[in-house]
Request: fold
Amino acid sequence: MGFRGSWANTHRATCRFHLPRGRLRPQPRLTPWEVQTVTTTTGLLRWAESKRQLLPRLAQFWQASDSRYVEPFAGSACLFFHLQPREAVLGDLNTDLMATYRTVRSSPDAVAARLSEMPSADEAFYYKMRDEVTSPLSAPDRAARFIYLNRYCFNGLYRTDLNGHFNVPFGGDRTGLLPSRSQLRKIAYRLRGQTLVNGDFGSTLRHVRQGDFVYLDPPYWVEGRRVFREYSSSVFAEGDLKRLKRWLTHLKERGIAFVLSYAHYRRARLLGR
Ligand SMILES: C[S@@+](CC[C@H](N)C(=O)[O-])C[C@H]1O[C@@H](n2cnc3c(N)ncnc32)[C@H](O)[C@@H]1O
Reply:
């Protein structure tokens, strides 16, 4: 029997975790110093429903002895960049996102060169980039476009129309700076040697081995409530939640430590039972 529990937080998200015997329990409260550590974290992207604000809390579940960090709903992967594990498996269904990570990993300087030619927080330029046909673009051009749109779009959303074209409006000019060459090099360094999976969470979870730590942050599916969940052309629905529940049971039976963050609503109980 391992330790199993949950905690609620101010972001109306609940975390459920399964920790095999022998693992440290997380602290019930955070000190002001721990809360401050959030500001020192660097990642590449903004992301809707990112758990950046919860990093100090989530980070407590990771142990230095864990062999690998696995995140099947990576998004901005802010916990990964915060923890800086030596080995990781990061996956996401979003093809443009995962292609961006791959390109930044292999060619940070080429992406930085493209970004350095782009004006910061320029609304007209944003819409010009948004309307661009992406198929003829080189990998660094595509990655730079993705990073630019992500930086200046509304609320870090990723949403496409039925043709798969990004359609989030401009989000104003208070969304920070584009990453510099040295920041992109750091991101590339963190991603080097890590396994990047573009696909459904099941294909990432198939990589899990004994001794791994898994963090799961799926899109919210809440019946009868409007909660943003359209990160790609497909929608995360009840069937996906049930599939995820089967995966959690499987991980638990294998004694794999995992933490799941999910909406703080009645439906989330489906995952916790
Ligand atoms: C709540 S966000 C993750 C946010 C991330 N924890 C962060 O801090 O940025 C959920 C992610 O799941 C991805 N996603 C949606 N459906 C998926 C699926 N079936 N398999 C894998 N990833 C999926 C979305 O593209 C999105 O990036």
About this structure: Residues 32-41, 225-230 have pLDDT under 50 and may be disordered. The CA atoms of residues 183 and 204 lie 27 Å apart. The pocket of S-adenosylmethionine is lined by residues 47, 49-51, 72-73, 75-76, 78, 92-94, 200-201, 217-219, 231-232, 236, 240 (CB under 6 Å).
